[in-house]
Amino acid sequence: MTRPQEHARHRGSIADTGLELTELGFGGSVIGNLYRVSPDEDAAAAVDVAWNAGIRYFDTAPHYGLGLSEHRLGLALRERRRDSYVISSKVGRLLVPNEVPRGVDSEGFVVRDDLCRQWDFSRDGVLRSIEETLRRTGLDRLDIVYLHDPDDHWRQAADHAMPALADLRGQGVVSAIGVGMNQSAMLARFLRETAADVVMLAGRYTLLDQSALDDVLPAAQEHGKSVVAAGVFNSGLLAHDRPAQGMTYDYRAAPAQIVARAQAIAEVCEWHGSSLRAAAVSFPFTHAAVANVTLGMGTAAHVLQNVDLHRQVPPPGLWADLRARGLLRRDVPV
Predict the structure, then answer these.
(1) Among 57, 64, 205, 249, which one carries the catalytic annotation?
(2) Beta-sheet strands, E only, within 32-183
């Protein structure tokens, strides 16, 4: 069973900002040469195919390829009507000249390391980062700005960066502000204690990890705010219909018990006529606070594959069956 062609329909607005995201988002890390070189023409083709498939939400960050993702995404979107899509980027990692380059970036992107990342969640750092992002993308504004991985910087991020973003939102420079992280507990604090409209939750509401039910998802519902789900494949294990030993889970070799659980979930998905990958893409939408699922996309083929997975409607009873078998938490809404 598949969704109709207009699969990128609006699920809901981001808080009270007036922004609406298509259900499926384009994650720009891969076109920043994540783990391997992505030619310029492949990056451009990926954005074109995503656009033709109805995707209108695009996410990037300075971190992705030391600015390469921002440059490529901005170039691909530059000739499109600016009010016809939503673009987000991030602050917290300034790009500064690298005084001791070794030839290639050390954080997973296959790019020269003439620049390096410098943590900075100060007000000046936020303003400088946004200015440099606009220069790299060639765009006149950003729609959403996230604080990027402030795990070790709560005080500066909450007391300085978020108020700076709130001022920009108040001036109409950006439409929505938020935080993106791989943990959920601090995201919940940002929703409860700061002016954040939306959070990008990576890997904590998936078929293998529903820990966000303890904090960020109820916080979003309580405060009328929104969640963008990312990392739905948990860095690789759920990206295969038949999980196996040696695959990655949360950027490490997957423990045997996690692989076994993924295999059990895959078997149930197959019994229902679905697949593990399609279920992984659909699962975050079981919670009403989730407005969008954003997937990394690097080539036209990759985009088409993700679009196809998103179009597959979960079979009736799949989530309830997984929950009854103890493969999902009992408090997962089904």
Answers:
(1) 64
(2) 57-59, 86-91, 93-97, 115-119, 144-148, 176-181
